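Trying the structure run again after the queue cleared.
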Amino acid sequence: MTGITDVLVVAPHPDDDVIGCGGSIAKHVRDGARVTVVIVIGRERSALDDAVSDAEFAAETENAAKALGVHRCVRFEEPSRDFALSRRVHLDLVRVMREVRPQVVYLPHDNDDDVEHRMVHQLTTEALWMAQSEFFQETGGRAMPAPQLVLGYEVWAPMARFQYAEDIDGQIETKVEAMRAYASQLRHAAWDEGIRGLARYRGAVSAGSGHAEVFQVLSLGAPPAGLRAGGGHD
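Done. Tokens:
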């Protein structure tokens, strides 16, 4: 999407942004956009990675963001499994939105199997409305214009239907590299192999070959310059 200068990605957990739209993030960066990632919920420890310190896990997050070229990564560190939608967390996200003033926004799609992903979908859609209103002045920023494009990405549950496909054939290795930065998460499952396989499948379905990420179109304003009808940008 040529002409895009600021992109916001809202992720429920660390690594969800990489899995859901890491290739698109790298493509935006390649095209000169600043990408801000907000990770809402903090780390959930497991017996498989309990030996990994919080500092080491934070370094994994930073390294993944660096691999993709993310401009800024904001971590809210909300409690896992005790996460609740509150005015405070809404205002925290509105504050970031008004600072970034994104033209493109990515968030989890609305029918993900993970309950926290669905909660973050709700949080983001509500915060988008709040950020565009003349209210909530306690965030300290001006009301932002509506994004040109709001896209829902897939993580835990692949989407049965999608409206937009992004060719990431040139970014698939960068996406896999970013996933491999989360060494502690690869102890749970071979996510690096999983995201490569899903991208290959999505590429075959949407274009007949290559690698792709697919999205639910949640809002479409004036089409960004360079957007090709039917999916993707050059």
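The beta strands are 6-11, 34-41, 72-78, 104-108, 149-153, 164-167, 212-220. Worth checking whether this holds up in the mutant runs.
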